[in-house]
Amino acid sequence: MKLDRNNILTALSIALFFLFVWWANHHLTSYAVRIWEDTLIFLMLSAGYNLINGVTGQFSLEPNGFVAIGAYVTAILILTPAQKESMFIIEPMVPWLANLHMSFLPALIIGGIVTAIVGFLLGFPVFRVRGDYLAIVTLGFGLTIRVVSNNTITITNGSLGLKGIPTYTNIWWCAVWVVIAMIVIMRIVDSAFGRAMKAIRDDEDAAIAMGINTLWMKQIAFVTAAFFEGVGGGLLASLITIISPTVFTFFLTFELLIIIVVGGLGSMTGTAIATVLVVWGSELLRVVEQPMNIFGLHIPGIPGMRMVVFSILLIVIMIFAREGIMGQKEFSWDWLFNKFKGKRA
Amino acid sequence: MKRLLSSLVAVLVALTFLANASLAGEVKVGVVLPMTGLVAAFGQSAWKGIKLAQSMEPKTKNGCKVKLILLDNKGMKVETANAVSKLITDNHVRAIIGAITSSDTMAGAPIAEKHHIPMITSSATNPLVTKGKKYISRACFIDPFQGAVAAKYARNKLHAKTAAVMIERDQDYSVGLAHAFIKAFKKLGGKIVAVEFFQSTDQDYSAQISDIKAKHPDIIYMPSYYQEIALFARQARQYGLKQPILAGDGAEAEALIKIGGKAVEGLTFTTHFDPHAAATPLTVKFIKLYEKKYGTPPDAMAALGADAYFILVQAINKAGGCNAKPEKINYYIRHTKNFKGVTGTITIDPKTGNAIKSAVIRKVKNGKFVYVTTVNP
Predict the structure, then answer these.
(1) Residue B286 and residue B266 share a domain
(2) Which of A53, A13, A21, A17 is nearest to A271 (CA)?
(3) Most-buried pick from B8, B161, B286, B296 (CB within 10 A)?
């Protein structure tokens, strides 16, 4: 990596980001910190998802399955053997897993790697189809994971789920992982791989004709996404301390899909903006569900109102920005400087 | 467009301030319930009960108003944790009522525990909810108790020697209750002859039914929800399986009778509350006011929600009313003794935070739920 202007600026802004995290951790309420943790985890999940859906253009619906695998693997590894023994009341856990115990970092990485391996193996069958068919088979995978986690009682504790997971996740864990994920994903997007992925998105047949090995390109995107979604799942498991098959339903995929579509398919900048918008939006909009007094007029709180307001906001965004907030554009330092120069000239 | 947006933002900001403006002399209590989502029906019922309870006892000692701040958790774990966190650090509540399901409550519990804010749940029955926690208590009994009550009733009243158990594999509620029943039934000298599994969305129970039929159990225990129980009962009767069916509180819904029809006649289940077994003066008063306000008799969720509120207000009063500190409120919640609530007499174990109270057994008779008996702990 060269020490040119852009790289220095990027390094500086990462430092600024960590400074913000430090400040937030010390000065914000624990509620705000918690929502930032949610935001960062969701950013990581949706950035990975955008790599496969937006950049490579393979419309798939599997993230809830990947997040579930990462969450389960991490949770199983960080729970103590004593906890596992008291939790598995239907059937005891398989012995080699029950006695496994390690610290958070290796657990997260193993969670990511296991998910990546599953993603790799899954890639071969599912990428034999394209378009709507791909969406359907990957949706099937997401559903299958749920059924599997319900029925492999000796590993996942079935519907009872895993409870009392140690809370290691804090805003620092989330921040560092997000930075790693964003750097890796942005580097892939900017590399020859990234250009090949975009070629597949724009016209797969033309890409094949140009000599691009489409299966491998898709696999690279898929496995990278799987790894970060697995790690994100691990962070999520340790944040909410309790996981069960019902946490990872299609709604999770749906939420991520909203984020990447609103942000702009293929734009990581858009994903970042949309993640903040969606996660913070649904929290800040709690205001509209509270009873209010406006100029003496009493309005009782209506639960569910924030979802209505939120949906209207989404519709407005999609009407005025058809391709999402950022479209396929990315923020770059060159763009910023050109803008300044253009103004001066 | 821009002007519209900025005025919209201005209105929103103004509303935020108005919504947060609080009067002096109130005690803020957070309420976290699923008002939307898959289990919204439970949350809405509980909220009805809590609101009515508040209108019955709106003030604490020294005349402070109890201000309830309701946050919706959509029946999701992440949202529950966020809501609990918001209530504590943003709204500065002194206590929290919620959530409905055990798993949601467990997602919020570590945060309340960390900030030393008492949290009382109306209906989370999983034993792990309060395990090892100092600030989490509940107004309902726990799964092992409910399972044990069913086992006792089956052994002592129905004189059943053998039982078959139907477990809904993907519902932790069902698994927990079945586990407790099996343990208690065996302890009382009974024998479990068949354990059958099924899934929430199953429509066809013929495999389980033919299996159970071959084993000839005296009773069938099916801790599940009303749709599944009703469907199972219909098919079981069709195939000539005539044994009595026992269930848990998940059976309690009008839809059970609507779907099940004649097949659920005689179905018996354990639950928290029966309007006809008016246990305390408060029960009578609550039912009367509830019917007047909402036009229907209260269900278990509403009654339990009201009890959580009453226990909490009582604890606030004992802790000093207006200036009650969360630590003290928690102390008095956990030292609730022989409190005459809506669902009966409640004592909370100071060590575990679990409510020690009686269970009610109800039965379907002539297409209606009727009271059978009360089982004391």
Answers:
(1) no
(2) A53
(3) B286
Mean pLDDT (10-residue bins), chain B, 377 residues = 58 52 74 88 92 92 90 90 94 92 91 94 90 92 91 92 92 88 93 91 90 93 91 93 91 87 92 81 92 90 94 93 91 92 91 91 91 87
Question: In which domain, by residue range, is A84 found?
Answer: 5-249
Q: Which residues of B touch A168 (CB under 8 A)?
A: none
Question: What residues make up the domain containing B334?
Answer: 2-141+280-357
Q: Which of B19, B110, B171 sits opposite A287 (nearest CB)?
A: B19
Q: Cβ separation of A294 and B128 shorter than 8 Å? A: no
The C-alpha atoms of residue B121 and residue B308 are separated, in whole angstroms, by 7
pLDDT of amino acid A199: 95
pTM of the complete model? 0.87
pLDDT given for residue B3 in this prediction:
58
Q: What are the residues whose beta carbons fall under 8 Å from the beta carbon of B31, sequence distance 6 or more?
A: B47, B50, B68, B69, B70, B71, B96, B97, B98
Nearest to B72 among A244, A289, A292 (CB): A289
Residue B107 Cα, gap to closest chain A Cα (Å): 6
Find the closest chain A residue to B19 by CA distance: A292
Say whether both B14 and B107 belong to one domain: yes
Residues of B in contact with A242 (CB under 8 A): 77, 103, 106-107
Does B372 reside within a domain?
Answer: no
Fill in the DSSP letter of residue A158: G
Domain annotation covers residue B116:
yes
- Residue A272 in any domain: the answer is no
Interface of B with A in 128-167 (CB under 8 A): 128, 132
Give the model's pLDDT for residue B12.
Answer: 55
Low-confidence stretches of chain A (pLDDT < 50) are 345
Residues of A with CB under 8 A from a CB of B: 29-32, 34-35, 38, 87, 89-90, 150-151, 158-161, 163-164, 167, 236, 239-242, 244-247, 283, 286-294, 301, 303-304, 306-307, 320
> What one-character DSSP code corresponds to residue B224?
S
Which residues, in sequence order, are CB contacts of A267 under 8 Å at separation 6+?
A50, A54, A324, A326, A327, A328, A329, A330
Phi/psi for B162 (5° steps) reads: -125, 150
In angstroms, the CA B78 to CA A109 distance is 23
Q: What CATH number has the domain bearing residue B51? A: 3.40.50.2300
3-state secondary structure of B195: strand
0.90 surpassed by complex ipTM: no
